[in-house]
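Predict the 3D structure for this chain.
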Amino acid sequence: MDKPTRGRRSKVDLLPDDIRKRLDAGLRDGSITQAELLDEVNALIQTAGLPEEAQLSRAGINRYATKVEAIGKELREVREVTQVWVAELGDKPTGEVTKLILEMARTQLFKALLNGNEEEADVGLIKDAMLAVQRLEAAAMSSHKREKEIRKAFAEEASEAAEKVARQAGLTKDAVASIKKEILGIV
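Done. Predicted structure below.
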């Protein structure tokens, strides 16, 4: 959990989006050192005409990098847990995967609201995720329904073929019905 602050936004939070995105990309990329990234970001701040106080310090960029890494670690852990559960549940369209994703979203939203940080509670992101979950579940259900229809059609064709072959072999109606029931599951 983040340490409580006095409610003041950090210098990084106050950066224009384009500069903050460059900082985030540099931290994710890892191809340059934090010192080099600090110099680059401070040059962008200066070029943008922001006041001298907007310049980042080594400690500030390190705190932000640590925070970003902690969030990244949480996301990686959530992905790992999700992969384990999805592997366990398989592609069963029973709604279990959806329930898991919804519970994870509720947990994240609750943590963000508990911390009092509405920036973490990105309602748009949560809404998009829920819409994606709804679409995935609908696609899974449609696929499951189609698979059942194909199986039913196959069973009916197999039943007709089995009945034809059984009659040609001289089996009684009861024997044919028994074969259909036991092997094909059709009455």
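The mean pLDDT is 76.
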